[in-house]
Amino acid sequence: MVTRFTRKDVAELAGVSTATVSYVFNKKRYVSQELTNKVLFAAKRLNYYPDMIASSLTTKKTHNIGVLVNDLSNPLQNAVISGIQRAAIKKGYFVNICAGESNFDVYIDNFISRHLDGVYIAVQATEIQREDILKLLDYNIKLVLNKTMNINDPRVNQIHLDLTAGMMMIIEYLAKQGHKDIAYLSCYDESVLSDERLPAFKAAMRKYLGCNDPVIVYGKVPYESTIESGKILVEQLLDTGKTCSALVCSNDLMAFGAMKVLHDSGYRIPEDISVVGIDNIELCKSSIPSLTTLDQKSEELGMAIFDLLYNDIVNGEIAQKCIWPQLVIRDSTAPYGKG
Amino acid sequence: MVTRFTRKDVAELAGVSTATVSYVFNKKRYVSQELTNKVLFAAKRLNYYPDMIASSLTTKKTHNIGVLVNDLSNPLQNAVISGIQRAAIKKGYFVNICAGESNFDVYIDNFISRHLDGVYIAVQATEIQREDILKLLDYNIKLVLNKTMNINDPRVNQIHLDLTAGMMMIIEYLAKQGHKDIAYLSCYDESVLSDERLPAFKAAMRKYLGCNDPVIVYGKVPYESTIESGKILVEQLLDTGKTCSALVCSNDLMAFGAMKVLHDSGYRIPEDISVVGIDNIELCKSSIPSLTTLDQKSEELGMAIFDLLYNDIVNGEIAQKCIWPQLVIRDSTAPYGKG
DNA sequence: TTGAAAGCGCTACCAT
DNA sequence: ATGGTAGCGCTTTCAA
Predict the structure, then answer these.
(1) How far is CA B14 from CA A227, B6, B10, B31, B42, in A?
(2) Contacts of B226 in chain A (CB under 8 A)
(3) Shortest CA distance to B214 belongs to which of B181, B247, B188?
(4) Which among A98, A259, A268, B129 is most buried, taking Cβ atoms within 10 Å?
């Protein structure tokens, strides 16, 4: 183990005051070139590392932000986190990841005790107390929330991935390909108001096809958006005996599950039925067939989240940002009647 | 914004010394029930949160650990991180995720400045300086490294997922099923010494089948372990004209690619050829056919990593741990000659 | 069993 | 343009 030298040691070796050493490092006031050089030289000789803990104690800034999510195993979420992290490190911020299993209050307390500068919370609105979230603001911890959380406090920054627009893109595309009977596998039922895909699907079917009661299969509690749930829901769809030439799924994993079952039941994709997912996870490129889907721009989303946080931490500015998804067309869709 | 009360405020309200307040919270010396109650009551009334930054300044412990990886988009890696995080929060530790893009030294400096208690580094040995890693030890930051990194300093904890044993399980299983001609699609060529699957495959073929020169197709720079590379390598295998009744792939994605090409070339899986992957990613359950593979126990691995770190931070004990993978048998494999 | 007080390393205000 | 120094909130030794 090596002795950690402090700002005082550097000051002595450089023959300057401790204040000057500080100012050389944090550039908060001008220091002559001569003294700057002396300090830098001394610091290098001593292998000096500034102590962020000590500086945090006075500045009340830790340059640390938190990300609270339900589940780290969601690849989409991970891409968002990756974007946050990349943007953060460029500005000298570290990212604490927190994935809860119902004990979110532990994290909230920690956020306060640890003086995080900001937090992005992306857990289900039903699983966390509104007042717990807002408590963070009382302790000067900046907040970015998803717009779908529907917490409209003027002190919170909001980020929105516009899935309504995205769903419109999907249906418009399918309609242009000649599809009329389009079914939807929804991971949620109608009671989950935070989900905008479902109402958007209905609206889009009305707008582009004049269809007022499209075929929709709803997921049940506990709502799952997994390969498995895709299988289950598509089986329910097949059981109804209703036909469709295109199928939209709440996310890519469900689409994979649906494709598996459809394939095993003798349907050819896309000849007999076109399938569309949402998310554009890595695997979409390589599934068989590759999956037409909605790109969530997750990295971009992550960067936008950090920018909101940063701008609030540094300038105290609150803002909202909206990211538009993008339709990525691959092999799981084809014009109607092509089979 | 709310005023943050300090230990001093609590002490005054409770009519005790500040030291007593500290001891009530950190339980490092006995405090009478009476005073304890007074303190707790006062703390609750003031909505007091201990300031971890201040306490870190004196104790030199931040209860914060770092995880440095190449890439946050790897689902397998994410499962490991998830395991680390879950184990960490139970002991009151937070996890900083860091994913580098060649600027690893920035992270190393930050680890030191931020006084992280420990770090797990899982980046390619070629991409990070050995001395940068070991420097952390000089600053009392505990280390867990993958055994494959081959850094044998007595101060570093090592974790090992035994893929050699795993490969043995695969070959033993296939041999017992009557397979003799087993080919291997390796994502790396023989120059990559950190990969233990390749030598393990050769050793296993010798041990279980007395075979000294099994059929192996090698990936080339830039080494890829994707569905695409699986397709390319299996095509090379078919081009050689050599026959085999079973095929082992470096990972699941490559196995998916290989299955796709084999299927398109008229082979039935598993009747004509058995296929085995490695990793057990979510999709293996739902591929067509579902894939026999090696489960990496990623969550368990993550927990083991935290345990190593924790035991070093708290007790100063260095250890090594080995996690065994587990063979998961599904529909892509069958006894030889079953077709 | 409890209290007083000296630091931990840095920042930033007040001087000069 | 630079220095001196009080104080950030907590821990922990020393004393009682």
Answers:
(1) 56, 12, 6, 13, 6
(2) 286
(3) B181
(4) A259
Mean pLDDT of chain B: 94
DSSP run (H or E) holding B82: helix B75-90
pLDDT of residue B183: 98
Q: Looking at the structure, do residues B243 and B95 belong to the same domain, yes or no?
A: no
**B1 falls within a domain:** no
Q: What per-residue confidence (pLDDT) applies to A339?
A: 59
Instruction: Verify whether the Cβ–Cβ distance A81 to B64 is below 8 Å.
Output: no
Which residues, other chains included, contact A332 with Cβ-Cβ below 8 Å and sequence gap of 6+? A255, A259, A269, A270, A274, A275, A276, A277, A287, A289, A290, A291, A292
- In B, minimum Cα distance to A227 occurs at B286
E strand intervals along chain B? 64-69, 94-99, 118-122, 142-146, 157-161, 182-186, 216-218, 246-249, 274-276, 293-295, 320-323, 326-328
Shared domain check, B256 and B304: no
How far is residue A187 from each of residues A29, A190, A289, measured CA to CA in Å? 56, 10, 22
In angstroms, the CA of B40 and the C1' of C4 are apart by 22
Nearest to A110 among B78, B94, B97 (CB): B94
Residues of chain A contacting B112 with CB distance shorter than 8 Å: 49
Do B138 and B170 lie in a common domain? no
For A75, the closest of B75, B99, B103 (CB atoms) is B75
Residue A264 belongs to a domain: yes
Give me the total of CB pairs closer than 8 Å, taking one residue from chain A and one from chain B.
Answer: 147
CB-CB neighbors (< 8 A) of A252 in chain B = none
Interatomic distance A18 CA / D5 C1' (Å): 10
pTM > 0.85: yes
Are B28 and B119 in the same domain?
no
Q: CATH no. for residue A282?
A: 3.40.50.2300
Q: What is the distance in angstroms measured between the alpha-carbon CA of B5 and the sugar C1' of C4?
A: 21
Residue A105 sits in the same domain as residue A130: yes
Confirm whether A332 is domain-assigned: no
In a domain, B128, yes or no: yes
Q: Are residue A110 and residue A173 in the same domain, yes or no?
A: no
CA–C1' gap, A278 and C15, in angstroms: 64
Overall domain count for chain A:
3
B276: left (phi over 0), alpha (psi -120 to 50) or beta: beta
The pLDDT value recorded for residue A338 is 67
* Residue of chain B nearest A5, judged by CA positions: B139
Region B207-211: mean pLDDT is 97
Distance to chain B for A211, nearest Cα, Å: 33
Q: What is the DSSP secondary-structure string of A19-74?
A: HHHHHHHH--S---HHHHHHHHHHHHHHT----HHHHHHHH---SEEEEEES-TT-
Low-confidence residues of chain A: pLDDT under 50 = none
Q: Rounded mean pLDDT of B180-209?
A: 95
Assess whether A18 and A32 both reside in one domain: yes
Q: Are residues B154 and B219 in the same domain?
A: no
Strand C contact at CB of residue A58, distance < 7 A: yes
| Closest-approach residue (CA) in chain A for B299 | A73
What is the per-residue pLDDT for B339? Answer: 59
Domain containing B16 equals 7-50
| pLDDT score of A101 | 72
Of B50, B69, B85, the position where a domain reaches its end is B50
Q: What is the CA angle B241-B244-B247, rounded to 5?
A: 115
Integer Cα distance of A246 and A157 in angstroms:
37
Residue B102 pLDDT:
65
